[in-house]
TrEMBL record:
Membrane topology category: Multi-pass membrane protein
The name this protein goes by in its record: Diacylglycerol kinase
Biological processes annotated in GO: phosphatidic acid biosynthetic process
InterPro entries assigned to the protein according to its UniProt record, in alphabetical order: DAGK, DAGK_prok, DAGK_sf
Active-site residues, as the UniProt record annotates them: E80
Family matches, as Gene3D superfamilies: 1.10.287.3610
Transmembrane portions of the chain: 41-60, 67-90, 110-127
The protein's enzyme class: transferase
Keywords: ATP-binding, Cell inner membrane, Cell membrane, Kinase, Lipid biosynthesis, Lipid metabolism, Magnesium, Membrane, Metal-binding, Nucleotide-binding, Phospholipid biosynthesis, Phospholipid metabolism, Transferase, Transmembrane, Transmembrane helix
Cofactor note: Mn(2+), Zn(2+), Cd(2+) and Co(2+) support activity to lesser extents.
GO-annotated molecular function: ATP binding; ATP-dependent diacylglycerol kinase activity; metal ion binding
Entry's family note: Belongs to the bacterial diacylglycerol kinase family.
Amino acid sequence: MNIETVKDASGLKTKSGLGRVFKAAGYSFAGLAAAWRYEAAFRQLLCMACVLIPVAFFVTDSPVERALLILPVLVSLALELLNSAIEAVVDRISLDIHPLSKRAKDLGSAAQFLGLCSIVIIWLAVLI
């Protein structure tokens, strides 16, 4: 079944067991590829993660501190994916300017801002 030709998604929900896991992994990789291709903010955060995650291994020997440094970076990437998903859905519904559309996009942006703040706060707390 080709997802490009399906008009009703109910046929995509029939998998169970290991087949479902493989399908879900495929959708996840497709989402990551779409984020890389279409979302500049995701690319920027991923580049930042490619710097910060290795740095976390050099600045501390403690596995717990490393995890504390890496986790907010990964959470911020996840938040950016969700923010981009919200924006895509809002834009899919309508490109008209509407207060609820603005609110949805602003809330997604605020979530990402808090994720970035958590990176700064946790890195400062661990390193100082």
